[in-house]
Amino acid sequence: MPRKRRADRPLPGRLMRFWWRFAVVGIIVYVGYTIWLGGAYRSVEAFTAGQCVAVPAPPGPEDMAVLPDGPGLLPGAIVSSQDRRDRTAPGGLYFYDLSSRPGTFTRLETPASMVLHPHGLSLFTAPDGQSFLHVINHRSSDRHTVEIFAVQQDAGSVPVLRHRGSVSSDLFVHPNGIAAAGPESFYLTNDRGSGPGWMHMVENLLQLARSTVVYHDGRGARVVADNIAFANGIEISADGGTVLVGSTQWRMIMAYTREATSGMLLRSGSLALPGGADNIRRDANGELWVAAHANAFAFIGHAMNAEKESPSMILRLSRNARGAIQTSEAFSDPGDMLSGASVGVQHQGRLLVGAVFQPTVLDCQLDEAKLREIEN
């Protein structure tokens, strides 16, 4: 029997085959794009703009905030610690003393009745010099709060935390990063949308933009930004007029203009990064320090198996002479020295680097002349 010519075949069948082929090609392109965006084949070379010392630390020193300097006050940073390979283990808040190098860790007292599994933290210093610490607390798998502490600092002494209260909201779906905007107000990122745990994996695989930014003004919470793929670190500019949000999946930092009275945000721009953004921290000079995961797939492997290494980068964002944003590389490591770096904070030429899982902090003496510029 002679084979039917293409023109003689039924139109519905030809259309069906066309759309199937189109869908297959689309899936292949999308998977390839996801693999590229995740940096599956990306590696980094070991580089430090200075010299680093590995300091044994409480497990999972995921976020840090540098305390303001003052006459007679011990220089240092408050560190959020949680063993993420055993999430049932209690976490803690620690003071890292910068008066010596390497420094030492001191556990800070919190209320004995408080279940503390800390994640992101942020510090707000009022005009009168009083500091307030805001800490995301995963009290359970489905209950998340923000703990607010007043920070009491006396000359020559380790700071003391005075718990002022806990803040909760149904909008705290799975908070990750936080930026304090006042003694009781803050922005936080939800790194995923609502739903069961497996949905988070689907979000990551399909690059779904279900993350949000929530603003709490001290009385109530509301969503002020959405449609973000894995919102992670967050920071407020020195003048308070801009909120910066890191997207780990999209490998960028998004800028939002902030309305000071209402706290509402309006998207105003973005900056591509050479890796997935984690925590963003502003130093005393207004410059930003960003931790980035160069290879998301390697980080997932490291999260599942401590023996697997994950490359890391610490970037500095600053303004050049023309007023344009300049990205510089301060630290990168394939995972030999530190895997899964999640935060970098700078204080008077010292760079502290923390990680999601490892019980290590890097204490680096920076030489700013050696920072490497990266083309944006």
Distance between the ends = 63 Å
CATH class: Mainly Beta
CATH superfamily: TolB, C-terminal domain
> Structural class from helices and strands?
mainly beta
Short description:
With 376 residues, this protein is mainly beta. 12% of the residues lie in helices and 46% in strands. The protein has a single domain (43-374), classed as Neuraminidase (6 Propeller), CATH 2.120.10.30.
What does this entry look like structurally?
The chain is mostly beta strands and 376 residues long. The chain has a single domain, classed as 6 Propeller (Neuraminidase). Helices cover 12% and strands 46% of the residues. The protein has three helices and 26 strands. Strands 1, 19, 20, 21, 22 and 26 form a six-stranded antiparallel β-sheet that branches. A four-stranded antiparallel β-sheet has the order 2-25-24-23, with no helix packed on it. A four-stranded antiparallel β-sheet has the order 3-4-5-6, with no helix packed on it. The protein is globular. The chain starts with 10 loop residues before the first helix and ends with a strand.
